[in-house]
Amino acid sequence: MTKKILITKSKVELMGIKNLLDSEGIENFEINNVDPGFAGVFGDYELKVNEKDFEKAREIIKQFQSE
Fold first, then answer.
1. Residue 67: CB partners within 8 Å, gap ≥ 6?
2. 48: number of Cβ within 10 Å
3. Residue 35 is part of which domain span?
4. CATH of the domain at 28
5. Collapsing DSSP states into helix, strand and coil, what is residue 47?
6. 27-44: b or e for each residue (b if 16 or more CB lie within 10 Å)?
7. 3-state secondary structure of 7
8. Number of domains in the chain
9. Cα(37)–Cα(67) distance, integer angstroms
Protein backbone atom coordinates (compact mmCIF):
# COMPACT_ATOMS: atom_id res chain seq x y z
CA MET A 1 0.00 0.00 0.00
CA THR A 2 1.29 3.46 -0.88
CA LYS A 3 0.52 6.84 0.66
CA LYS A 4 0.61 10.28 -0.92
CA ILE A 5 3.52 12.26 0.55
CA LEU A 6 3.65 15.32 -1.73
CA ILE A 7 1.54 17.32 -4.18
CA THR A 8 3.28 20.06 -6.16
CA LYS A 9 3.01 22.01 -9.39
CA SER A 10 6.81 22.24 -9.61
CA LYS A 11 8.63 19.52 -11.54
CA VAL A 12 11.90 20.88 -10.12
CA GLU A 13 10.70 20.45 -6.52
CA LEU A 14 9.39 16.98 -7.33
CA MET A 15 12.69 15.84 -8.84
CA GLY A 16 14.69 17.26 -5.93
CA ILE A 17 12.61 15.39 -3.39
CA LYS A 18 12.58 12.19 -5.48
CA ASN A 19 16.40 12.30 -5.66
CA LEU A 20 16.64 12.90 -1.92
CA LEU A 21 14.32 9.97 -1.12
CA ASP A 22 16.19 7.75 -3.60
CA SER A 23 19.48 8.58 -1.89
CA GLU A 24 17.95 7.48 1.43
CA GLY A 25 16.78 4.20 -0.10
CA ILE A 26 13.09 5.11 0.02
CA GLU A 27 11.19 3.78 -2.97
CA ASN A 28 8.86 6.43 -4.40
CA PHE A 29 6.30 6.68 -7.18
CA GLU A 30 5.55 9.76 -9.28
CA ILE A 31 2.09 10.43 -10.68
CA ASN A 32 1.88 13.10 -13.36
CA ASN A 33 -1.55 14.77 -13.37
CA VAL A 34 -0.38 17.78 -15.44
CA ASP A 35 -2.31 18.55 -18.62
CA PRO A 36 0.40 18.42 -21.33
CA GLY A 37 -1.22 21.27 -23.24
CA PHE A 38 -1.05 23.57 -20.22
CA ALA A 39 2.05 22.43 -18.30
CA GLY A 40 2.32 24.16 -14.95
CA VAL A 41 -1.18 25.64 -15.17
CA PHE A 42 -3.60 22.74 -14.88
CA GLY A 43 -2.85 19.71 -12.76
CA ASP A 44 -0.06 18.73 -10.44
CA TYR A 45 2.50 16.08 -9.62
CA GLU A 46 1.97 13.59 -6.81
CA LEU A 47 4.63 11.61 -5.03
CA LYS A 48 3.79 8.44 -3.14
CA VAL A 49 5.86 6.20 -0.91
CA ASN A 50 5.27 2.82 0.65
CA GLU A 51 3.27 3.07 3.85
CA LYS A 52 6.15 1.60 5.88
CA ASP A 53 8.43 4.47 4.74
CA PHE A 54 5.89 7.27 5.13
CA GLU A 55 7.07 8.73 8.47
CA LYS A 56 10.76 8.65 7.52
CA ALA A 57 10.00 10.24 4.13
CA ARG A 58 7.85 12.92 5.75
CA GLU A 59 10.69 13.90 8.10
CA ILE A 60 13.20 14.02 5.22
CA ILE A 61 10.87 16.23 3.14
CA LYS A 62 10.13 18.49 6.12
CA GLN A 63 13.87 18.97 6.69
CA PHE A 64 14.47 19.64 2.97
CA GLN A 65 11.70 22.25 2.75
CA SER A 66 12.89 24.11 5.84
CA GLU A 67 16.39 24.64 4.42
1. none
2. 18
3. 2-66
4. 3.30.70.1530
5. strand
6. ebeeeeebeeeeeeeeee
7. strand
8. 1
9. 33
